[in-house]
Specification:
Layout: E1 2-3, E2 6-7, H1 13-23, H2 32-38, H3 71-78
Antiparallel strand pairs: 1-2
């Protein structure tokens, strides 16, 4: 199969999940087989959280404590 100009020769969806897990640190612990068994896994799922992360944000967001930036605010600063 060819999508977006990239040749994709996957024989099964598990091969896609294997590639995602290999290339994306927050998905290292996810596999097609585990998804089949559990139904879903909340990321991040890796060495630090091998069973996934049931609740990501309790008291505050992990990131985003700095100044927010949007295209409209970027334009305002340039003027």
């Amino acid at each position: 199969m060819r999508a977006l100009g990239y040749e994709m020769n996957y024989a099964h969806p598990s091969e896609i999940m294997d590639e995602i897990a290999r290339l994306t640190p927050t998905f290292h612990g996810v596999s097609y087989e585990r998804l089949e068994e559990l139904g879903s896994i909340q990321w991040p799922c890796n060495e630090k959280a091998p069973d996934g992360t049931p609740t990501m944000h309790i008291d505050e967001f992990v990131r985003g404590k700095g100044a927010s930036s949007s295209p409209s605010s970027s334009r305002r600063r340039r003027r």
